[in-house]
Amino acid sequence: MKKPVGAEKKRVKRSSGSASTSVRDSGSDAPPRKQKKDLFQLFAEKVRDHKGLESRWAVMEQARVEYFRGKDFVSFIKNHPECKEILEEDKDLDTEDIANVLLGKNLLVRCDRVTKTLRPGKKKLSTWPAHLEIFRDDQAFSETDAFFAWTFEKRHPLWQTLLSFFWPVLTLAICLFPVYPHRCKLIVLYSCAGILLMILSLLFVRAVAFGSMWILLGKRVWFFPNILAEEATLKELFRFWPKKDEEEPPKWTSRLFYTVVAVVVVMLLRHHAPDEAARARYQRRMSNIIDDVLEWSPKLALSGLMENQPPVNVTEAANNSSDAAGPDHAEEADLDETQGEEEAEGWTNSDIKT
Hints:
This protein has 12 helices and 5 strands.
């Protein structure tokens, strides 16, 4: 019995619909895998950029690579567990499992030192070898005497790229500072002096606030706690509110001792402070390049000095040149005058005889 054509068309539509839904399901399943891979990529980039993981540079198969030790990676994950939060579902994995995943995704490669024998006069192998080779036996994580190199290129943010172009321009501008106009020199000078004064004032007020609260209340309160930190970001660097003090309070004996020391130092500075007359004498006696820049004026330039010179007298210059000629030139001039007088007398005598 033949089936109607309409039923066959319905079956074809259903089959095509099921195929499209399967494609959609497969497409919907693909992004999580890609997202999981990207999470480990982000984790690797975050760990590599973190300064808590000690690393070095070495040559491996004619290429420079950045590598670290297995035991340092274990201690880093132990001391910074917040780095694992980026892995989301896989954040509960052990350190060894995370490292093996990175090795499986070719984000890491296990290396070994090229020179495995001791050099003459050495008692142990180098802690950070300068030459490495790929470990051929097993690409698995190991904590004992194992090295691991990053295989991906380190991404540089946009501000670092712009800063790399800005540094040469800044260096050239610093070198050309002596030829700046006078007004530009003053602007640069006062700007740098103002920034330096602001930094020193901030550090001084910060230290005074910490010392006062530590002596009076026994609490360690640092305003701008990350102002001197090397690993802080720009946002964390200017954070004003301090962290919570979780350390034990200081003893009253130490607080009393440092109070006496602070009072003695203040009294000594006040007693030996120079008066206004001594400061004025010192300022008149000493001069430096900053005073030269501040007191310089375009009127004192070479052109201005030449215009302010008095007119030169020609006769005085001639007399000075004849005086500076010396005795030898004077004797020669006298001889020429006597010879001329004798010749004139001889001519007169010959005229009389004729």
